[in-house]
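Narrative of activities, Objective 1.

The group set out to show that a structural description can be obtained from nothing but a protein's sequence at a throughput compatible with the screening campaign. Below is one input-output pair from the validation batch, recorded exactly as produced.
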Amino acid sequence: MTATDVVGVVLVAGKSERMEAGRLKQLLPFGERTMAGLAVASAEASRLDRVVVVTGREDEAVAAALQLGRSVVVRNDRYEAGNVTSLLVGVDAAGEYGAIVLLLGDMPGVTPDIIDRFVDVWREERPWAALAVYDDGVPNHPFLLSAAAVAAMPQTSGSKVLWRHLVEAPPGPVATLSFSRAAPVDVDTWADYQAALDQLGLAELSE
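Output recorded for this entry:
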């Protein structure tokens, strides 16, 4: 471990409030994996130095379905307070690092090559922070935060804290990494799930 390492923090702790019929979206099938499992597999297949996975709701079931390789799993007991609390739990487990790449467990279309772009940018340019932009031109995940950007992050709960920190009112320079592809689907609802399966060319599951 060194202070220049790039550590992936994969958040699979969400409440899954908007998914129909009370389904836990982290456990939805994506090919031979779950949605959370696919996100973790992509992180493990990338050039990240280490990977930390943060669980929350139904943590034992989610962790059991991950098919882990090199990841370390930690639980956020305060996951209901928002994703910043999950990120901070992941950061605490990351050891020494130069930058964190924040990955969302409900965005399975973020592939290893996307993650590797963030790793390469950190190693070559050392930005304060960075984010992705896809064909729609809208700022999007993944997010890269240097140790300085993590230290400057508001210590507060709730939604959109990271969005305000990196997009709306960043206290430091944020680099933009452009990708010539459709934005990965952010899965919140059953319709999003079907769209993500279609985007990835996977078979649909009947509701």
